[in-house]
Amino acid sequence: MGTEILSDMQKTTLDPSNWDDFRTQSHLMLDDMLSYIENIRLRPVWQPIPNNVRQSIQESIPLKPSELSEVHDQFMKKVLPYAVGNVHPAFMGWVHGGGTPVGMLAEMLSAGLNANLGGRDQMPIEIEKQVVRWMIELFEFPENSSGIFVAGTSMANFMSVLIARTNLLGREVRETGLLNSGRTLIAYTSEAAHGCIKQAIDIAGIGTDSIRFIPVNNEYQMDVEILRKTIAEDKKNGLEPFFIAATAGTVDVGAIDDLETIASIAKKENIWFHVDGAYGALGLLAEDVAPKIKGIHQADSIAFDFHKWGQVPYDAGFILVRNRNVHLETFSSPATYLSRENAGMSAGSPWPCDFGPDLSRSFRALKTWFTFKTYGKEKIGEMISDTCKLAQYLKTSVVDNPNLELMSPVELNIVCFRFKAENSDEINKSIVIKLQESGICAPSTTTLNGSLAIRVAFVNHRTNFNDVDALIEATVRFGKEYESSI
Ligand SMILES: *Cc1c(COP(=O)(O)O)cnc(C)c1O
User: Fold this and answer.
1) Atom of ligand 1 nearest to the CA of 193
2) Which residue of 84, 165, 318, 416 is 20 to 30 Å from 455, comparing CA positions?
3) Is the CB of 190 inside a 6 Å radius of any atom of ligand 1?
4) Dihedrals φ, ψ of 446, to 5°?
């Protein structure tokens, strides 16, 4: 007997054997998800995962097939009800985007196309380049600036550190390493910066001892006078300031550093000026928010997320870099198996993989392109502006309520407040857990000047003024209940 040749009927493929049945099931799945979003208000914002549900999915690798409808049923019963709830209008914790049905559909198209955006000559990369051009326009960067989609701002901030390092030490540093450069690089950010800035310096091999965490003023902005002095001192000691990360929209309170002043300091001292605008940078889309972040246009690099205020489904982070050359110098390393041509599928160099550490990459640009095309800049801007109006409304409601107290300035869409009480930290921690477990609304907490605050971030485009009223009502009710129980 010779080698057996399989007929096409016998050969294994993962496509459906009956496309008609599959199509019917697909439409059911799509409808379920549309209904989920349409009727999201009928659900609690979040509910604890029951133990039996948590355990019910634990099994060995499935050996045999299951019906798609069965697996989908498990998703509907076991996964969908126990997500974190950021689609829900009453989700007010952390800084999570709400997503949109348009973004969901675009994700589906992108998965169907299964495009790998690492490189080669393909229209999906042209779409990504178009979004890059939009961002160059929005941030008023020079036409030949570069940009690329990444998972999130954590990755974008990390890349900006590497780019700033290459900018100072040249491409050679990639071969010699930092140690052999014999130079001590110093980075600056504020005490209110996101933890991923510290992590970026760490994983870039610079070492967190080389970060100066500049104290903040009463507005939670980096104190620029201390920044100036610290840079001068470091220079005097033979150290090399190379990177300043300012924040446009801090996670705690939504503060915006004085970007214009920091830009001028960076320019004068010849230091890379990076802005962590994770959620705040897209405030540029809103007419009334844009003036607050003036100065961002002068950055050398900006990191931000479309998946926060931009409402693009996770994940869709982005980095924009003024100096395309140094961006390329930091990451490009043409390998022979990635050889480029002027024609055919290997044309179109440089490729996205030359602008970052990822080779295989998803088509994050598509859901972002769909979002801008279907909603338009104006409407997205109005939505962003409205989340800030909700914050002002909550601020007023807090100030007017004798049981509540405002804990920080309200610059953008974040409000920090607390229920006034003797063991304030304990009570407010319990209030937040109760709010989350009741399914009424889901704020988070933060610590400001050593005191625990209820932190409300309005990012979800579905949240309305009634949701703010419900938050206030339940906070006061749970606070009083707690007090009378002790
Ligand atoms: C959310 C956030 C980050 C982290 O962004 P990811 O997309 O979660 O990686 C960094 N900085 C600030 C100010 C943020 O709000």
Assistant:
1) 13
2) 318
3) no
4) -150, 170
